[in-house]
Structures are given as structure tokens and as C-alpha cells.
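User: Predict the full complex structure for these chains.
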Amino acid sequence: MLKAIQILGCSSGFISQRLKKSHSGNGFSLISSKGSDTSTSLFLHPFWTPKTLTFRLIRMFSTQSESNSNAPASSSSFSSVAVHSAGNVHKIKFCQWCGGPAKHEIPDGEEKIRAICTLCGKIAYQNPKMVVGCLIEHEKKILLCKRNIEPSYGLWTLPAGYLEIGESAAEGAVRETWEEAGAEVEVVSPFAQLDIPLIGQTYIIFLAKLKKPHFSPGPESSECCLFELDNIPFDSLAFSSIFVTLNLYIEDVKSGKIKFHYGTINKRLGTGPSDIRAFTLDYHLQA
Amino acid sequence: MLKAIQILGCSSGFISQRLKKSHSGNGFSLISSKGSDTSTSLFLHPFWTPKTLTFRLIRMFSTQSESNSNAPASSSSFSSVAVHSAGNVHKIKFCQWCGGPAKHEIPDGEEKIRAICTLCGKIAYQNPKMVVGCLIEHEKKILLCKRNIEPSYGLWTLPAGYLEIGESAAEGAVRETWEEAGAEVEVVSPFAQLDIPLIGQTYIIFLAKLKKPHFSPGPESSECCLFELDNIPFDSLAFSSIFVTLNLYIEDVKSGKIKFHYGTINKRLGTGPSDIRAFTLDYHLQA
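Assistant: Here is the predicted structure of the two-chain assembly.
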């Protein structure tokens, strides 16, 4: 399934020449705030108080707009849209267990409309899905994959995909890295949990290191490449979650302390899938 | 929906008298290991190297056995079994979108058997679900809820439940805390992610504090009570995830440093739901 393994560097040519450092990608203005005007551009700045865990509300904005109605969707590779997206209870017309027609009502003791089977009475709950991936550090560089599939074909991402039943998040992140980047990695530490409520996804990103100095694009990637932090293609990233993760990582590296980050990426309704900077990063917590 | 609010203390009587400190609950032997014999009882001990994020494999055992075939299952309150458990692709007989009969095959480009609609071709992916909850600290005590529903009726747990579409994990944890403990809380920091692959669940636990010094059991709880760390009812806890979370927290408090924990709870197959100590804690990572 995988193309020939190459020894480090880029797994296909002409990448570093094409990509320039995106100053705008890192260029937030600096405001650390609680409850500030959310229409202001704010800097994604890590807080850290060693002896007391802190709570900060940070909103990170940019000038573009975005929507993830065509969000990554398949179980492990973002390839089938709608089935896995945020969930619309009214799209569930039948019971998947008995085939009975579904009704859409609020069950006793609950508060939300659910799809309830009119024959067997089972409820088809819809819940957010976890996308697990690795931020692979190697010689002060980061491994990125260029997407060979929609959505965000041709744009750069971390190796990541939907967590499967029966595996842990760390195992899923390692599997996805092998499938998308042909890289054997060891998970080093949890780095970020980024919820995206609008599309019913939670990104779980681990820091990882290469077990062997090899990588090669899998079927879902056209290229894999190690990028110096100054050369990360911020203008050509695939998803808001990757944009946030890489910014958090760069800030941590600059501060000399890698932390764990929790945050909520609230996308702006009605904006396009390509507008990966149209969001606020809310409830940014660190440990 | 909620019973009358009470000012702190226990929300029903006779709790502190009934519960004794469970020495066995904290009583692991101490071995910090990588790849050690997994049949050995090992201590759940937090590692922390401030300047280098570390990877440790810890296995935590006890003498009992457990199974979660009757795992917590409903969307937000663990009340309906099977619909939400780890997922069995062969239970999916029909397409929930068009009602067509499902076949069970490995789709092109994938590696796992999926339920595929024979009419519209859509794939019904099954993915792990997030259970979000709060570990509420108040005056060196922890708020626990006594379950008023199955599974684990009458046993103690942290307020937690399934994350809903459209909310962040932090929002879900706050909501569940209100629903189950009648407590308004503010999330302080991420504390733990504990995957349970066997039952397709991931626990996301936040440290939180009371916004008002009030709590009261919701419909799914019979009692809510603040416990001193020395009096946590380890012999009467509802779930392995809660057992692990509380142990990690106590160790962190003792060490003087609260960390973020990632780990995998691997349950022993074929054991009973009440055997919450029949597991290993693998891939315990900290940040």
C-alpha cells in the first residue's frame, strides 16, 4: 500500500522551494483576556503558572471565514462526507438494528431530540468523534503530510484520522501515522485536545518521535516532509485544528516548555471549508 | 428535576458513617516499569520530569476481574445498554439513512469490516465515544455522586456522561455536573484522558471548582457528597475510570503537583461489571 520508503528529507521533491514562511500565519496580535470583545484579533499565547493551574479564556481570530459542512468524515481517512459529520438527527430515518422507521422526539428523561425506533424503541444516539494524530518532532523539524484526498486536497496536515473502536487514542495516532506517512513512531506525550463542536469532532494530538528515520507518503498523502518551524506552510494548511496545534507548539518551543493544551475551536458559521482561520479558540486551558 | 439544593456537606445523610477509608483501594505495590510482567500488581505512580516529557508504561492490576459488556451506554446518563457500547458491526442490519439492508464487508481501501448499505452504499462507521466529567475540588474534598441508575446502581462516581454533538468537552462536563450533582462549576484545567478500548469509551476528566457552594443530587444520583481524600469510598466506586482518576489525583496531591494524565485502561475480558479493579493501566503518559 505504501510507496517506497525514503530516508528522511522530503518524500517528494520541490517542496521546500514552493513553501515560504507565512508571517501572517503566526501573526496574531497579543491580548490575553477574559471575556473580552470576541471580535478582536487575539494572540494565541500559552499561559503557565507552575504552582497553580490556571484558567484562561482566549479568543483567536483571523480575517477569513470558514465552515466545515464538508468536514473530514470517514472513519480513518476523512474520505466520506456526511456520514460522520456533526450529526443531524433528522437524517436518521430508520433503525439500524431492526429496520423500523424512526421518529424524532425527546425521550423521557432527556432534553434533546433523538431518533427513536418506532418498532423496537432503541435510540440512535449521535456523539462527537475523536480524530487522533501525531506531531512528530525530528531534529527540530515537524513532519507534515500533503493530502492526496478531499477535503483539503493538496494542503498540509499532521498525520491524523478517526479513532477506531478497539484501539486507544495513542494506538490510533500511531496507526494513522503509519498509514498516512509510512512512519513508525513512538508516542512521547499528550499535547493537545481541541474540540470543534460545530462539526462534532475532537482532535487528540500526541507528541511523537520517529522510531526509524524513515517516512513515505501513504495512499492518502502525496508528499511527506520535515519542516523547520520557521518554514511551516501556514498558508497551505488543511484544517483549523492543525493551524492551532502548530501555533501552540511553536509558542511552547519558544517558551522553552512543552505543555498540554485543551481548547475549543469555534468555527464561524457560513464560511467556506478553505477558510481555516475563521474561528475563535475558546477556553484555552493548559496543564 | 433537581431536589432541593443543600448547602455543602452531604446531600443525604448517613454517608460518612457508612464509608470507611479503603486501604485496599489505594494499596498497590510499587513498581515503576517498562514492559514488566503484566501479571504483577503495580503501583499507580505518577512520573514527572519537569524538563523532559517522559513516556512510561505502567500496568496497574488488582485481584478482581471485570467485563464491561454492560457498559455505560446512553448519550448522557449511562441508562440504555448496548446502543452505545463498544460496537459490533454485525449488529447493524439496516441503513439508518435509507433503510436498505446492510452487508458486512471490508470497503475498498480500508482494512476493517464495516456495515455497508446494499442500496445507497453508505458506510455506518462506529467510533469510540467520549465520556466527560468533573473532578470537583472544594476545601480539600472531592464531590462524588451515588448512582441512582444502572449500571453500578448505588456506587459512587464523579459526575460524568456522554459528550453531546454541538458542545465542547468542557461544556459537556459542566452540563453533566449540573445534571447529576446540581452543582454549578467552573472548569479549571484538563486532568485526565483515559481510554477504555474494550468498551469503546474515552473518559475526559477536568478539574473544576464550585461557582456556588451548593449541590444536590439530580435524577440519576441518590446522594452527592464531599469526601476528604482519606475517606474516598474506594470499595464502592462505580467504574474503573473513576478508580484510576481518583488514584492519580491523590498521588498528584501528595506529590504537590497536579499534572495531566493520559492512559489506557485495558479491562480483562470475561470479568464482571462490578470488578472495577480488573484492568491494567497502560501507556500512562503525563504532561
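Chain A is about 15% helix and 30% strand.
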